[in-house]
Amino acid sequence: MVNPSLQIKIAENKDCEIVIHHLKLVASWLKENQINQWQFLLEGGEDEEIKRSIIRDETYLVTTGEELVATFTLSTKQNEWDEHLWGEEHSSGFLYLHRLAVLPMYMGLEIGKNILSWVVKNPNWQQKTIRLDCVAHNIKLNDFYKNQQFIKAGVMDGHMRFERKNF
């Protein structure tokens, strides 16, 4: 069940800096906690990709009241990374989830679970297979996706691939 106090909306162009700042806060927290993931974000490694995903209406803000608590990106089109991990796909039957990031002060409150529930229940994405990846060595994150009914689809370049059919 989706937490009714959470609001999920498409990010706007004016939100670019806050989304990038949010992602870098999460990347810093990961680094401080010796979790080797998203360090490239700290050097601006995906700033342009993040801006493009906002312009294309693929990035979402998750708020409670006026407070930003999480962000994520959903796309029906593959980016270069998706093509690398999954192979080039021309079907419209896939939805790619990227950069699901909950601010550290809100971790442990099932916000990630609520976001995934919202994605799965959203009528815009019925009949799609949701795909995502995460670093293979982050066991806690891998277990999180498995517990949300995502199925392991293999490992590629140190990244675990997961998918969930939304039928």
Overview of this protein structure:
- The protein is an alpha+beta fold and 167 residues long.
- The chain has a single domain (6-166), classed as Aminopeptidase, CATH 3.40.630.30.
- It is built from six helices and seven strands; from the N terminus they run E-H-H-H-E-E-H-E-H-E-H-E-E.
- A seven-stranded mixed β-sheet has the order 1-2-3-4-5-7-6, sandwiched between helices.
- Strand 2 and strand 3 (67-75) form a beta hairpin.
- It is globular, with a radius of gyration of 15 Å.
- The model has no long low-confidence stretch (mean pLDDT 93).
**Helix content range of the residues, please?**
25-40%
Average pLDDT confidence is 93
User: Using only CA atoms, what is the Rg?
Assistant: 15 Å
Looking across the biggest beta sheet, what order are the strands in? 1-2-3-4-5-7-6
Question: What is the SS-derived class?
Answer: alpha+beta
N-to-C SSE series? EHHHEEHEHEHEE
Q: Could you say what the CATH topology is called?
A: Aminopeptidase
Question: Considering the protein shown, what is the CATH homologous superfamily?
Answer: Gcn5-related N-acetyltransferase (GNAT)
User: Can you tell me the residue ranges where pLDDT is under 50 for at least 5 consecutive residues?
Assistant: none
CATH architecture: 3-Layer(aba) Sandwich
Amino- and carboxy-terminal Cα gap: 18 Å
Give the total of beta strands: 7
Give the overall form.
globular
How many domain regions?
1
- Describe the main β-sheet briefly: 7 strands, mixed
